Amino acid sequence: MTDTHAQKHAVTVGGERLSIADVVRVARHGAQIELSPTALDSVRATRGTIEGLASDTVPHYGVSTGFGALATRHIPADLRAQLQRSLVRSHAAGAGPEVEREVVRALMLLRINTLATGRTGVRGETLETYVAILNAGITPVVHEYGSLGCSGDLAPLSHCALALMGEGLVRDLDGEVMEAGDALSAAGITPVELAEKEGLALINGTDGMLGMLCLAITDLRQLVTTADIAAAMSVEGLMGSDDVFAADLQALRPQPGQARSAENMRKVLSDSPIRESHRDAESDTRVQDAYSLRCAPQVAGGVRDTIDHAARVAEWELASAIDNPVVTLDGRVQSNGNFHGAPVAYVLDFLSIVAADLASISERRTDRFLDKARNHGLPPFLADDPGVDSGLMIAQYTQAAMVSEMKRLANPASVDSIPSSAMQEDHVSMGWSAARKLRRSVDALTRVLAIELVAASRGIQLRAPLQPAPASGSVIAALAEVGNVAPGPDRFLAPDLEAAYEAVLDGTVVTAAEKITGRLN
Hints:
By secondary structure, the chain is mainly alpha-helical. Helices cover 54% and strands 5% of the residues. The strands form four sheets. Strands 4-6-7 form a three-stranded antiparallel β-sheet. A two-stranded parallel ribbon has the order 1-2. A two-stranded antiparallel sheet has the order 3-5. It is found in: Cytoplasm.
């Protein structure tokens, strides 16, 4: 998804809290990061606390003990550097396909953000090395499986920590896979020799699931606006009514997202000759439209309000310092459970649910265009010569397949829990899994909306000589620049659907509508 603001200005870490937009700028658009002037001072101060415990004969978790179910073993001083190396190496146990670059960059940024709070006890040079690696565009190879969303996103974060040690595989700025040591050397970065507590501090957080949440929120905000545009165009093309979107009707049910979506739809439908052609009762005897048209603001509005709730959770998490044990403000080194990903996992699952429902209502509008019994005078399947041509028949099949998959992806991951670490970690969030399936759902929603836009564009054009609303016309023209959305004989359809998908993905559709409507919600 696009971000219309400048991407290359550095994001400051360790001062004011990061925003969702900051995460996207670094993760997706390659913005550099810099530490705030006070961050290193705070980090060095709390490092002194950890070093003071290193010689203590009393065991301290993460400093002089094993980990998880092995925390009962006291580790002698001469083995503690090995303890940290062994922790990272053993926990870098991911499997499966490689995770996307933007996800890994988000994860790295968010771990840096926690380290910069000074609550984890790492050394300043370790933090500075992490920053240097991210700014050099070096991205550790992280795998699909390995996090249970509790005790942090352990395997994903460990693969990143391994790169700090100069070990494992990474991708350089050009995307080439190479040994981490070679990539660091080429960038002039010296690998880190981990000291007490540092291995644990590098891997113990909700950073992967939180990073994916921030990316999904950004994408879904654009997609729900796109859904309003598509719905309005479908109402227009299906000779529906915009009366139900009136502001006074929305005010009777003061759900904030619903009002915003209805306003978008009113703007897109404004000054539509197609709509005006059947505004009086004599030319339109229908009492009311089908739910997929009439209730579009209610569904999209509920999606909007869910996104806003998820954003609040993300913002709270962005303000957090998650580690175990943590160095408190009064200097205690205290065990805690803040690494548990439940709050993030719940909203990740919630977003998968609303994304599936937004796709479902979009697919229903598309299907309505294709059925001659319900499309108010359009040819079957919007075909040029029905029977010889199949029109958009199978495009709806493709939509239906994706919507069905999204319904399966909406099954919550956060209700599952598999005990681990010899029952020491006996309840986990599965937040990473919730985030991974949400990414697939967001991509599918993008494609479903693109197909609705293709159907609506063709349907509107088949209403000629009636002309569409100016905003609809602008969207149709933008889609026509990248693909073919005009009626006509059957053609190879997949490239046109892919072009529409790209136009949704990069914000072309929203931009085209806003050229006429002004800023949409």
